Amino acid sequence: MNRKVSIIDYGVGNILSVKRAFEFCGAQVELVNTPEKIIKSDILVLPGVGAFKNAMDELIKRNLKDSIIEFSTTNKPMLGICLGMQLLLEKSEEFGNTEGLGIIKGEVVKIEDTTINGNYQKIPHVGWNELEIPDDMDNNLWNNTIFNGIDERKSVYFVHSFTAKPTNSGNRLADSYYGGRTISAAIKKGNVYGCQFHPEKSGEIGLQIIRNILEI
User: How far apart are CA 165 and CA 108, in angstroms?
Assistant: First the structure.
């Protein structure tokens, strides 16, 4: 396969496990931290864990925000992972409203700490959970995407307290459920993808998702 992948290194999150997963799938991986290298990337990965505001502050401080937005218009593959997925949206309510990259319309909101039946549930949402095709979506939605060849209800690994809410239903690619409520597991706009879960921690299913993005 030997595709070249650029992973943005901006001081937020453990990028080593992401790098190793892509290399395991046959990619040539470079850690990038300049606008010039971001723009010239073939496939761009935006990882991230922690707080939304801290991550956006780092992207702005390092002068990377505009180059990421510009890359998203090129139709080359891009993947946001966990917090990196949330950053693709317009804003987050974490620690007050913070502006995101605005690549995909929508917002990031806190997961409710009760189930639909009113029972307490633990936040953050941590552990394995199933991928579902969003309600009212075509069963062929996943064809020719990062979920190509993956069966519905396969489990992947989540660690998060906030969930993305895209404005347009057409940007929803996969959902999961926690306490009976919908959580955005993956979003999409063109060749820009976001995974709320960690593909690099999701076993063979996660590796298949990585292989799929290398083939786009």
Answer: 6
Q: What is the CATH number of domain 4-95+108-215?
A: 3.40.50.880
- Beta-bridge mates of residue 125: 160
pTM of the model: 0.96
Q: Say whether 198 is catalytic.
A: yes
- Catalytic residue (choose from 23, 152, 198, 204): 198
What digits encode the pLDDT tens for the residues 61-93?
999 999 999 999 999 999 999 999 999 999 999
| CA atoms of 205 and 192, how far apart (whole Å) | 19
82 carries an active-site annotation:
yes
pLDDT digits 0-9 by tens, 9-42: 999 878 999 999 999 999 999 999 999 999 999 9
Q: Which of 36, 70, 82, 90 is flagged as catalytic?
A: 82
200 noted as active-site residue: yes
